[in-house]
Input
Amino acid sequence: SSALRARLGLNVPPAPFCIGMVARFDRWPGWHPGVAHPKGFDVLFAALSRLDFPYRVLLLGPPNPEDHEALRAMAQVHGARPDWLIFPGFQNDISAYYGLMDVNVLPSRREGLGLALVEGLAAGVPVLGSGSGGIREVIQDGRNGFLFPEGDAVALAGLLIRLAREPELRRRLGEEGRRQLQEAAFDEGRLVGGFMDCLAREHPASVHGERMP
Output
């Protein structure tokens, strides 16, 4: 909505290209802003350093101000604009935020199902993802989005530049992605099955009736 767009600072002229990323942000002992991250935040930030037009990055997932500061530091290290990162904080329902995105990016080095990409497709948003795990099952290269090699910031930058320059391509990819979902290419049973497979790999205890950590 226009009110949400204004609240997030997306209504500045010229209208910035809005890049969405929906992912958890974990830190560990020894973490530092220059480290390679499993979700590929560093890959996105390195790609952004190659863009020569105004953009904003809508980062949904990291809820804490400390995480926001850590990600701004990471962006700085990799040459992205820390002040162009937008953190809405924790949201129970993120469906409205997909409508603000020009493109939805998931540059993970390791990914199970890539559910955020499926949600983006349902909202008619073109998707860019690394060729990692379940992402290859969601993205049909050139039809509903594009794949790029895992960890390849230069390839991701090229795709971002192309999509920013070609609104008609964004529209076509988004429409195709939504159509594929409506035709049940990702039916509920397959999604649930994929999610349970992902849970079994990531949290073996949770699929045996025990409480997830």
In short: The chain has two domains: 2-182, 185-213. The mean pLDDT is 88. The radius of gyration is 17 Å. The chain is about 40% helix and 10% strand.
